[in-house]
Every structure is written in C-alpha cells, then in structure tokens.
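Q: what does this look like with magnesium ion bound?
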Amino acid sequence: MSAGLDKGAGANAAGTGTGSGSGCVDPILSTVGISMVFGGLVALNSVDLSIERGSITALIGPNGSGKTTFFNCVTGIYKPTRGEVILYPALDLPSKSLKGLPADVITHEGLARTFQNIRLFNNLTVLENVLIGRHTRMRAGLWGALTRNRKTRAEEAAAIERSYGLLVTYGLDAMANELAKNLPYGAQRRLEIVRALATEPKVLLLDEPAAGLNIAETAALRDLISDIRENEKVSILLIEHDMNLVMKVSKKIYVFDYGRLIAQGPPDEIQKDPKVIKAYLGED
Ligand SMILES: Nc1ncnc2c1ncn2[C@@H]1O[C@H](COP(=O)(O)OP(=O)(O)OP(=O)(O)O)[C@@H](O)[C@H]1O
Ligand SMILES: [Mg+2]
C-alpha cells in the first residue's frame, strides 16, 4: 500500500453543475479525490471516478486494490477520510453531495448495491425479500403501519404488485414463495440484484455478481445486466473479476491497484494497457 495520501482534488466539487471528474460528459455520479485510510493502510488514494448517465461502467483491479472499499465509501457504509461523492440526479436538477450521509439516506437518494457475499433474508420468501427493497419508496409512517388505514393498504398492494412484476420481468416469479435460502446459488445472486432494483435506484452498484457462478449462469447474468440497463433507466457500476463479462458489457472501465486509479478507458484500450497487465500479472 502507498505510504501516504496524495493531495485530493477535494472538497469544492458539489454544486458545480455537470461535467465534473474524469472527462465524463454527463455523469450521474462522480467522486472527487476520495481517500480512505484504515489505521496506517491507505485503502483508497484520491480516486476521481465518474459514471456516465445510463451506462454500464466497470471497476476492476487485483484482490485488495480497494474496489469494495470504494463502494462502501460511496454508499455511506464508510465515511471517506477525504474527498467528495456527488450525485447529479438529472440534467436540470442541482447536484448533491452524498459524502457523510447515512447509508439509508443514500439509498433513498437513488444508490442501490449488492454485496460480494450474498446478503439476503434467508428465512423470508423471494417476494418478501424484494418487498423489503421496495419499502424504501413507501410513504406510510408509523401511524399508517399501526392503523393499517386504507391509504396504507393501497400502498402495500401496489408494493406487492410492483415487486411481483420485477420477479416476472427478471425470471424469478416461479420461485416467489420459496424461502431465499432454498434457491439455487445463481438465483440467489439474481434475487439480490432484483431486490436492489426494487428501491428504484438511479445508480446500481454490483460487487462481483458473477462470483461463484458457472459459465451458463454467468452468461445469463450478462443478459440480466444488459436488460436492466435498458428496462430500468439505471446507470450501473460493476465490480467484477470475470474479464470476459466486463469486456462485453462495459462502456468504460476503471482500474485500481493498491488503492489508486491506474487506468481508465474503453475495454479495447484497457485490455492492452501495459499498466493494467502489470498490475494483474506482477513484475516478471
Ligand atoms: N474495515 C477495514 N479495516 C481495515 N482494513 C480494511 C477494511 N476494509 C478493507 N480493508 C483493507 O483495504 C484494502 C482494500 O480492500 P477491499 O476489500 O476494498 O479490496 P477489493 O479490491 O474489494 O478486493 P477483492 O477483489 O478481494 O474483493 C485491503 O487491504 C483490505 O484488507
Ligand atoms: Mg471486494
């Protein structure tokens, strides 16, 4: 790991309109100089990264290079040591700083994620797992939940309809009433993604969704990711070690090594970038 922090581009990025960071013309989300230090370990070192609105962007790098830490900083699980996280909700709306906001507020602002190790509610059904994601967008307060008034009941019915609709669209409806723990592994990975979608994200962050999948399941995942981008008007940031998948679906790839951004560009350039090859293969 790097001995010290680089001087980040830093703090004044929020509210500057569009176009900040990494040469992105129309970003939905940008980080500016994001750093994360754990004790003496610099896990992220002044990272500027932008996700183009409506695109699939990939984040790759060797084990321990800071990819999951980046997700944790962006989604409010960690508060970054330095730097900014900026959401550009729409071209005609002002940008918002997400830095330091709690994870549930960030979900409400439109960021949803999956985890490297599947995190489902194992003893709830498939439909119930998706409903929990849907809950982020429900308005009924405590009073509505206690009295179960007409408005609350109507909202619950709509949530069930919307959640079931997602299961139909993404091929999980036949398993709607199964407990999550009884699903095959590939279906559990799919369910985690569908649950994240139920929050109606603007940005979907997927942390190694192909981990543990066989070749057929990985091919189905590739179709799922492409379908989601087309159907849901969502921008996707994908951490993935499966290079075949990354190269096929991504418009732009960012590469981390030891917490630093060492390369960025389209798949055909990244594949032959000597810095990237060296990071993966090491010195000869
Ligand atoms: N909470 C933490 N406390 C201390 N160190 C941490 C913490 N989280 C991550 N790290 C360290 O930060 C570095 C980056 O870890 P991170 O999990 O972000 O890597 P990664 O790129 O996601 O790796 P992988 O491909 O194996 O998932 C590692 O050295 C890791 O040990
Ligand atoms: Mg990781």
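The radius of gyration is 19 Å. The chain is about 35% helix and 20% strand.
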